[in-house]
Amino acid sequence: MRRTVCDLHAELVRYNLVAWTAGNVSGRIPGEDLFVIKPSGVSYDELTPENMVVCDLDGNLVEGEHSPSSDTAAHAYVYRNMPEVGGVVHTHSTYASAWAARGEAIPCVLTAMADEFGGEIPVGPFALIGDDSIGQGIVETLKGHRSKAVLMQNHGVFSIGTDARDAVKAAVMCEDVARTVHVARQLGEPLPIPQDDIDRLYDRYQNVYGQRSPR
Ligand SMILES: [Zn+2]
């Protein structure tokens, strides 16, 4: 899991979702009340499986020589309150954060959005780092919502998934559609997709598309 989470950080760099040391990936350790997360303030080039840190679901350091990411409390809150979640990602990716800065949800105007997010990508509350308010905002917004990503107002993106890789995919797709819908907006008013078509696309993509493999 340390290697998996370490390697997934390279995807954030590859897809241009992060600057300097901002952004982080975590993955729940199956069958344990533990997760692996990025160490705080270590540059992406210096991440190794060995310097990843292990925390419990209260965000306390369990194993590792570095202190955990400053966003650890938010990740821990999500794992405590959403048992189905196996991975969490946080970025300040440019286009998605631009939507967050305006406090505007990304409307579902692309079939790729219907596929991946099942509708709009919602906005979560403005919340300051330091206590559970970011985690609470993420959980309140995403619980019972199809979207695997939330735009935390004036901040950036948190995404969730069945595992860490799934959460990274949601972060990548969130930035991709944020950019496309932004560009569409510059040219005019994007056309909405009827709700029953969104439902059909979402159902097909989630249940039929791709290679079936036992999980
Ligand atoms: Zn942040």
Keywords:
15% strand; zinc; Aldolase_II/adducin_N; 215 residues; Aldolase_II/adducin_N_sf; 8 strands; globular; binds zinc ion; metal-binding; alpha+beta; L-ribulose-5-phosphate 4-epimerase
Strand order of the largest sheet: 4-3-2-1-5-8-7-6
Mean of residue pLDDT?
A: 96
Distance between the termini: 16 Å
Q: State the secondary-structure class.
A: alpha+beta
- Note the overall shape: globular
Ligands, ions, cofactors:
zinc ion
Description:
It is a single chain. By secondary structure, the protein is α+β, with helices and mostly antiparallel strands. Helix content is 40%, strand content 15%. It is built from seven helices and eight strands, in the order αββββαβααβαββαα. The protein has helices at residues 2-14, 72-81, 94-102, 111-117, 133-142, 164-187, 195-207; strands spanning 24-28, 34-37, 53-56, 61-63, 87-91, 123-124, 149-152, 156-161. A hairpin with a 3-residue loop joins β7 and β8. α3 crosses α6 and α4 runs antiparallel to α6. The radius of gyration is 17 Å and the shape is globular. Zinc ion (ZN) binds at residues 90, 92, 155-156. Zinc ion binds at residues 90, 92, 155-156.
Topology:
Blueprint: H1 2-14, E1 24-28, E2 34-37, E3 53-56, E4 61-63, H2 72-81, E5 87-91, H3 94-102, H4 111-117, E6 123-124, H5 133-142, E7 149-152, E8 156-161, H6 164-187, H7 195-207
Parallel strand pairs: 6-7
Antiparallel strand pairs: 1-2, 1-5, 2-3, 3-4, 5-8, 7-8
Helix pairs in contact: 1-6, 2-5, 3-6, 4-6, 4-7
Bound molecules: zinc ion (ZN).
Family: Belongs to the aldolase class II family. AraD/FucA subfamily.
Cofactor: Zn(2+)
Domain Class II aldolase/adducin N-terminal: 3-182
